[in-house]
Structures are given as C-alpha cells and as structure tokens.
Amino acid sequence: MIHRKSRDEIKRMRHAGHIVALVHKKMKEVIEPGISTLELDSIATKIIKENRAIPTFLGYNGFPGSICASINEEVVHGIPSKDRIVKEGDIISIDVGATYGGMVGDGAWTYPVGNVTDEIKRLLKTTEESLFAGIAQMRDGNVLDDISSAIEAVANREKLGIVRQYGGHGVGHNMHEDPFLFNYKVGDHTLIKHGYVIAIEPMLNLGGDAVEVADDEWTVSTVDKKPSAHFEHTVLATEDEPLIITQILQ
Q1: Under CATH, what is the fold of the domain 7-244?
Q2: Angle at CA of residue 114, ends 112 and 117, nearest 5°
C-alpha cells in the first residue's frame, strides 16, 4: 500500500534529504585519485551524525557501511573498504541514506575520478538526464509507467543498457516502501497522487542489461564488466511541480 505523506512527515523528510545532499556536496569535493571507499564512508557518517541523523544504510539487513560505494562496473551496493582505492579515470557511485525524525532521505550520484573517457562522460550525462526526465513525470494524475517510460526513452536514445532487477521505490518511514518503480516500461498504471514520495533511481550501463551479485552477497556488477552509472533523488509529488527532497535547503 502506498501512503501519502503528511505535511509534518514531508518537513522531516526534507531535512533528511538536506543531510543527504550535504553528504553528496562533500563527496564531490573529496573524491580524487588515492582516496579509499572506507574514508568516504567515514566522512559521510560524520556529516550525518553531526546533523543529528542516523545513517540509514548502516546495519540495514546487515549492511556494514553508511554509504554504498560502487566503482566502475559495480552498479550498486558496493561495501566500503580500506582496500578499495579509486584511481584516475574511474567512476564511483555513492548511494547514501539519512534518517531524521524517523523519516528517510535517499540519494545517489556517480562521480568521475579525475579525467574520464568521452564514453564515460556520455554514460554519466545520459544517466543524469534520464533521472530528471523521470522526475518531470512525478506528477499528480500521472502513472508510474510515465516515469519508467521517460527513463527508458533516454537510455534507448543513447543505446545504453538498463539494469532490470533493481529500480526506484517508495520511501518515508522506511527506506524501501511501496511502490517499486521500474526503469523501463512494464504497463504499471498505478496512479501518482500528491503526497506520494518515491526514490527515482535509474541505473544505466555502457554495455548490456545483465548484472550479477558478488560472493559478498551485496555488490552488484555488470556481467560484461562494462561501466555502470547510478543517479537517484527522493521526489515528492505535489499539486504542482515535483519537489526534489534530496537537495540542500535554502
């Protein structure tokens, strides 16, 4: 069942989203060749806790980090480690959640490490564009397939692979709530109503669609080992324009 969020719940979610945005602002500043994913995790944890919030991911189904840090062909759920060092030309996807006042904000971004190839730049640009194409359809009276179709259209235009097993989701009191949101058209005509909050998160690949889970039972990577990008915002459907929750409050 999909629950509309109250004005008070939205207020707390916006603060949680603000904290997520603060983490990403810092990630953009500190990601450079030579930094470990464990160091990035420590920085994120510090920001979340300094803002009187809880790292949503830490301990979630046993996950050992405050962020997911996924490098190159890793799509999602990469475990932070002192041995995972980013290098020039890599890309790294940082997914982070913060819980404030019992409400969750969830957002991801893929960052280039130093100079990257033109193909990688195209992947990042297109995946970000697909996110905002999906967000534009998060409107009262639309259906979930409107979001999915918008994401798929951008991916297909650039002939990028679409991760099929993972997608967006409702978010609020819990990190994963109804509904599940596919990143491609499936015929889901669930009506979007104002007060609904969904984490929209396209994951696109330079190669094919197929992914697999590593032996650590968390890290998801492309089967063909081609790079993957992941962009995510938590978004509120209003009676007017969609509102991005995971942005810094002014």
Answers
A1: Creatine Amidinohydrolase (3.90.230)
A2: 70
